[in-house]
Amino acid sequence: xxxxxxxxxxxxxxGKDIKVMVIKTEDGDLRLAIDAPKDIKITRGEILVHD
Length: 51
Description:
Elements: E1 11-14, E2 18-24, E3 30-35, H1 45-48
GO molecular function, one term: mRNA 5'-UTR binding
InterPro entries: CsrA, CsrA_sf
Pfam families: CsrA (PF02599)
């Protein structure tokens, strides 16, 4: 696993066409904005984890 520190407005590229950017909301929360082709499936982790 690769662990990176990123500030709001900074991003990482995965391959040539997937961009993951850290954004900050008005509340001060940090969120991820993911720009990827429509044929790439993106699933939140809590959907995959079952107790």
